[in-house]
Each structure stands twice: as structure tokens, then as C-alpha cells.
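Hi there,

I know you've been waiting on this one. I reran it after we fixed the sequence typo, so this is the corrected version. Both the input and the resulting structure follow.
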Amino acid sequence: MVDPTPFTRNRGRPAIALHRLDALPQPPVREEIVQGLIAAGEVVALVGPAGTGKSAVAQRLAICTAEGRPFLGRPVLQGPVVYIAAERWGGTARRLRAIQKKITAPVYIAKARPNLGEIAEVKELAERISRVCEHERRCPSLIIFDTLARCMPGLDENSARDMGKVMEGLAVLADEVSSAAIIFIHHTGKNGDTRGSTALLGAVDLELQVHNGNGVKRLEVTKANSVAEDQEFFVRLVPVEFREHPNSDPETVIAAFEAGPDECDRTDIPDAAPSRSELILGLVDELAVDGKADRMACLSAARDRGIVKDARSDNSPEKALKNTAEQFRKALVELKDADLIRFDNTTILVGVGLPPHKPHGPP
């Protein structure tokens, strides 16, 4: 049966086709990117409070998908990944390199803040992604935005109108790059719900929420259109050491690895002593009151405990103090890049002390 076409719209707008119920086109087959969880064409929200390691989880998913490795025990559909690093670009690139096992894995990273509320910018991004399709001879399986707030400049996340524009932009991108699932990272508010207008949650196909635990982060499916809700996954944030170049000094970054609620199955987690950054994070947690710690007090304690120390015994006291202060600063930067702390010249904020995310401030 041929469907009637009752009317079309002028001015270049697409025609509206009406289908008889007994002659509906066959729906597209749901192509899963992560088995039982994420599929091509879907828009996924990865949400949680600051400091829960959302970016580390997204980066783990990116590498697993590009390399064809299981993600949290689930098989994946291997394919290129596009990672829009709208904040902390340098830290994102380091962490992706640190956890990759295949140097040639097709992961593309962009230091960009496209405005998802502007359809012209969304279509420009889709055109750039089409070049990945040509180069890889396969279109991406994932497009990740880290974070959503940085990709909606000038818009109010509490406005249903503004958030509707952003979600429409993501829908257009999903249509333009139909091979990919689109994932965005976003923050929860003080009540634990996804921050901003309810238009956001209403428009996504899947919401994954990250919760803090006793050393283990819990990922929960809190909304799903096509898969079971209340699914749970567990990860642990682990320090990983790597070198940018064979002769460079080692660096430590925080990465997400699969864990179990009882920590019985940790075969994929490196067996390593705590890094300096991990020790300093524990020290800051210990000294913090209501999530706030004095930076100089933490530095002094790190020196007393030997977490930071000068390797040269012949250095002057002034030089030794300078060297240990620099070691401490670098560790703080690593923890900040991992979204675990915030700090300035006097104060370190951790856990409940972390401030609400500021969508349009400097990184």
C-alpha cells in the first residue's frame, strides 16, 4: 500500500508524511553500543555530584569502545569515539592516553565548546565528524560531551525553553550521526536529582547516575526507555602511572576500573601501592572540616608524613621546601583534573565541600 501524502510544507521545510496504522514503516533495529545498556541514536546523561569521577567513567567507556574491550563486564560494539573535552582538555588527553592499550585506537578528542543550542553549530560539528567517518571508513559509535554545561554558553539550564534548545541540538546530532550514541556529563543538584530543567531528563533515553560509596563508586540506571532500570555497576578510581614519552618523568592520573560491591573481582585493577596523589587525597579528607581544608596545613602534614620529600640531601632548607611544595601542587592539580577536589592558594575543597558547578566560568 502506498501511503497518501496529504500535504507538504513550503520554504524548504520537510514534508509531513501520514501513515496508516496497518502500513507503518518497519522501525530501525536497535543497535547496541554497550550490551543491554546504550544503543546508537540514543542520548544518554551521565550525572552525579562533583568529585564522583564521572569524567573518569566516560573516559573508560571511550577507550573500551574504541578498542572493543568490555565496559563494566558488558560487550561493546567497537568503533571510533569522538570526545568533546569542553573543560580540562589537557587532563582528559593524559587520562585517555594513560588507560589505552592500543596506541592506534580511533579516539578523537576536541578542545571545543560547541553551542548545542545553535543548530548551525551542531550541523558544523556533524560535518567535522563526517570526516572521521571518511578517515576511519566507519562512523563513530560514541560522541561524548564533557560537560553539557560548557556546551550551552549563555543559556540557562533552569529554563525549559533553553534546555529544550540544547536537547533539540542533541537530537539533530543524533539524526546526523545515526551510528553513535551521544553521552553528556552533567551534575546533580543538592537534592541528588539531575540539575536544571526537567526538560533535560524528559528528553534523554537513558540516565546513568554515579553515587559515592566507601571507596567504590556505584553507577545506577535511574531512567531508561529501552532497557531495564535499577541496573547497577561498580567502579573504583585508581591512580595510574604513565609516561608521555619513553624518557619523560612518570605522571599519575586517576582512572576508573571495574569493581564489585564487595571488591571480590578486581582482576582489571592494577596491583599498585597508593600514589602520592591518592595519599594526599586521603590526607585532605582527614584534615577537612565540612569539606574544607587549609592548604598550608595539608602541605605541612604531607611533609611530616614523608608524602612529599626532597630527594636531594644536599639541598638547602629553602630549596627543599620549594621542591616539596611543587610536588604537593602537582598532586593537587592531578586531583583537580580528576574532578576530586578544588583548591586555591589557601583552601582545598573535597567531597561535600565542593562548590556547585559553574557552567560558564573559566576551567
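Quick highlight: Confidence is low (pLDDT under 50) at residues 5-9, 263-273, 356-363.

Best,
R. S.
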